[in-house]
Amino acid sequence: MRRGVICGGCWTADRIKVVDVWPGEEELANIVALDQQGGGSAYNTGIDLRRMAPDLPVFGIGLVGDDADGQFLFDQATRHGVDTSALQTLPEVRTSFTDVMSAKTTGKRTFFHYTGANDHLTPDHFHFDNTTANILHLGLLGVHACLDSSWQHEANGWVAVLKKAQAAGLHTNIEMVSIDPYRNRELCLPCLPYLDTLIINDHEAGGLVCMDTLVDGVTNVAACEQAARTLLGLGAMQQVIVHYSTGAVCISRDQTVLRTNAFHVPPELVKSAVGAGDAFTAGMLYGIHEHWSLEQSLELAHAAAAASLRSPTTVGSVESVDECLAFARSLS
Questions:
Q1: Contact of 136 with 165, CB cutoff 8 Å
Q2: Which of 60, 207, 302, 307 has the largest CB neighbor count within 10 A?
Q3: Ramachandran region of residue 116, left (φ > 0), alpha (ψ -120 to 50) or beta?
Q4: Contact 171, 6 (CB under 8 A)
């Protein structure tokens, strides 16, 4: 039996700064907390999975530079038990890093990203012939120069990787980042025929299908559902899951629709939302891996996201599956 999740793509060092308020241009905000953590979809989701289920094999694929940030990422991944045999170091290239600015008043975060070693990642770095895993989680589209470009006869390198993964029998999922909607459509839509699931947020879903899923910062749940339905028709996914701050909607290939509510975390417990999206994805992928029902998987996804809000870092407060569920249920 195959077991485990491959987390491939974006590995970056996060320089986390919590500011008292989000300033306008040329205005001053005070930094009230500092931290350094690993970041990027491959790192965050991989570490979250290991924290939730220490017996679950997690395999990392990606590139880092031969520098202190790269060593930090290696050390953190190794400490959490991620298999780093396919995480490679490039000499004379700087590790990708992100300045993560979180506003204390809202918990919302803004990213200033340097792509670094991630720009050199290509489909040739992904090898699945002898894998013992059964899920590939891949991202981030839009911040990898080679993977974002056409590759041989494919629209982009992401498609080439997904095709290789499906040929090897892997369940495939991608993660996006909130960049220009046109660019996201250009990169993501060619990937849809080679995905088994698509787990994205409300902003990304709306951008992919040219719909307003957010009105004055408030999620239009009906629009999210329609966006998910449209995306399902454009690809081969068995489920499309769109999550937002107050819940999620999931549409399956058989047109079953599930709407779920997020757990309400008291404001005094919220430190940052910086890792909530990756925690949600990790919870959902764990449920899929363990053949849980969609209802159970979505509950864990919301529970992991709720647990993650208690730390200013991406993975600092995600706990075991049972502990995440117990914390979330205590909020009901």
A1: yes
A2: 307
A3: left
A4: no
Angle between helices 202-209 and 221-234 (to 10 degrees): 60
Q: How far is the CA of 278 from the CAs of 28, 49, 138, 253, 266, in angstroms?
A: 30, 10, 12, 24, 20
The Cα-based distances of 295 to 9, 251, 284, 326 in angstroms read: 28, 12, 10, 16
Task: Give the separation between CA 33 and CA 277, rounded to whole angstroms.
Answer: 21
**In angstroms, rounded to a whole number, what is the distance separating the alpha carbons of residues 178 and 113?**
12
- Number of C-beta neighbours around residue 58 at 10 A: 27
- The angle subtended at Cα 172 by Cα 327 and Cα 176, nearest 5°, is 70
List alpha helices for 35-180, DSSP H. Answer: 41-52, 68-79, 145-148, 157-167
Domain ranges of the chain: 5-330
Query: How would CATH label the architecture of 5-330?
Result: 3-Layer(aba) Sandwich (3.40)
Q: Specify which residues 16 forms β-bridges with.
A: 35, 100
Which residues in the chain land under pLDDT 50? none
**β-sheet with 12-19: strand ranges across:** 31-39, 12-19, 97-103, 109-114
Cα dist from 283 to 10, 65, 127, 303, whole Å: 19, 30, 25, 8
Cα–Cα nearest to 123, from 170, 161, 177: 161
For residue 8, report the phi and psi dihedrals to the nearest 5 degrees. -120, 150
Question: Cα separation of 238 and 195, whole Å?
Answer: 8
Question: Which of 283, 306, 288, 291 is closest to 53 using CA atoms?
Answer: 283
Pairing of strands 5-9, 58-65: parallel
